[in-house]
Amino acid sequence: MHSQRTYRELMNQAHLVSFRTAVQETDLMIQAEQDLSAVSRDLVLRYRGHIERYIARHREFARTLAPWPETGPVPAIIAQMVSAGQAAGVGPMAAVAGAVAEQVGHGLCKHSREVVVENGGDLFIKLEKTATVGIFAGDSPLSLRLGVQIDSRARPVAVCTSSGTIGHSLSLGVADAVTVIADSCALADAAATAIGNQVTSPEAVTQAIEFGRRIDGIKGLLVICNETMGAWGAVDLTRLGGKKG
Q1: What percent of the chain is modeled with pLDDT above 90?
Q2: Cα end-to-end distance, the chain, whole Å
């Protein structure tokens, strides 16, 4: 069973059709110009198949917390996960949610001009107008009080968030939210994990940002730990109304 993700109730692109695609651990909330449930399910099965077959041959791929040394020909989604993990200094599975969101998103863009794919806090966004991504940061007083303005009219944008205090993703830190903006969802996902690992206390937010800004390919990042916040790069912040519910 998939845990309830109540933050999805705040996704609001009223001109698009919303639908959910769930296959085993993969649980996507998708918005597009029409219901593409069958297409999205086929895409999820395809890319999960690539990952599952690779893991069947390389069991350590699913367990390692270190960058994976693969250099040979592999499916595109495996190559993305490996490259993202190497760039961020983490294991390839730190990029799996973002990589799936990205591959499914690009596949759906062949059927819809506008697509949003959300996979456990990792977002693939392709919209014809600017949008605001609210930052959910658990019990932090800054949770859902800040949003990031995203312009994906020219090309898709990745916005991925990791947390050491909420959710089931592995994190070695205590950040309430680390949000990374990049072109690649796989990279943004892996980078959010790597940066989050650096946040051992609110006082460590500055050093975490210094660490993150050295990851090649990141366009911007935001770190929230309790009442402390820091940002770097192309992060267009806007004030939101606050927590709901």
Answers
A1: 82
A2: 23
